[in-house]
Amino acid sequence: MIALRKLAGLSTKNRLRKAAELLRGFEAEIRASRPVDSYYLAGLCETLVRSDTADAVRERAVKLEERLRKAGLSLSGPLSPDFGRECGVICTIILTELGTALADWDLRIPGTELLDSGARRVLPVDLFLEDLRSPFNVGNIFRSAEAFGVRHIYLSPATPSPEQPRASRSSMGASLAVPWSVCSLQEACLASGDSGNGTQVIALETGGTGIGSYSFPSGGLLLLGNEEWGLSEEALLRADVRLSIPMGGAKASLNVSVAAAITLQRWFESRQ
């Protein structure tokens, strides 16, 4: 770590940027229950208090330093999770002041580092992502799918791969826990077991039955469409039912990953 005296000698912008980086490091170490140098962390807080920065940064740095000294400083000792949380909050305030916000995939969500796919409760529910454009949306859909028991995700050839860096980061590890494959709509229907085998194909699209009044089946294939154009005519014709999410806004539309999360939660809850 950079010497605190050297840190104090940097320009204000560089000092704050480096301080944010250090705080992120402390946050990660504390979350992992690893010992940290609380003497250094207290000195970092003192440096921030003396810096030309936002009042919120100085105020929280003062409180954190006081708490550290009250807890007892150590060159290599554990700190409770609340200290890590405070490091993260101060880091976020600094980055906001610098005009640099953390992206969702920069956040370290507890429990996502090593997802155990065997620990999931899986329903006979599959997804087909038809020609999505945004890797970020793909990753978010994987994250919701992992949370709500999706068995398999089928992607059209034009949909970004969950292995794409942005998709992988936004999935928070879920793309490693939920099985997936690339195929056509027809192949996805056959693999999932379409209506000919007693499994419903459900299109999530505007102008359909509201999800609140729909009785979700035990399993099925949910079709999700392109962010701008929605589902293709082929997909709508293939579906046994069209579902919609009732909305009261003037825009009357939702991001596809948000719509997927809402629908999957309803489906999962209905099977409890």
UniProtKB/TrEMBL annotation:
<dbReference type="GO" id="GO:0032259">
    <property type="term" value="P:methylation"/>
</dbReference>
<keyword id="KW-0808">Transferase</keyword>
<dbReference type="GO" id="GO:0003723">
    <property type="term" value="F:RNA binding"/>
</dbReference>
<feature type="domain" description="tRNA/rRNA methyltransferase SpoU type">
    <location>
        <begin position="127"/>
        <end position="264"/>
    </location>
</feature>
<dbReference type="InterPro" id="IPR051259">
    <property type="entry name" value="rRNA_Methyltransferase"/>
</dbReference>
<dbReference type="GO" id="GO:0006396">
    <property type="term" value="P:RNA processing"/>
</dbReference>
<keyword id="KW-0489">Methyltransferase</keyword>
<dbReference type="GO" id="GO:0008173">
    <property type="term" value="F:RNA methyltransferase activity"/>
</dbReference>
<dbReference type="InterPro" id="IPR001537">
    <property type="entry name" value="SpoU_MeTrfase"/>
</dbReference>
<dbReference type="InterPro" id="IPR029028">
    <property type="entry name" value="Alpha/beta_knot_MTases"/>
</dbReference>
<dbReference type="InterPro" id="IPR029026">
    <property type="entry name" value="tRNA_m1G_MTases_N"/>
</dbReference>
<protein>
    <recommendedName>
        <fullName>tRNA/rRNA methyltransferase SpoU type domain-containing protein</fullName>
    </recommendedName>
</protein>
<dbReference type="Pfam" id="PF00588">
    <property type="entry name" value="SpoU_methylase"/>
</dbReference>
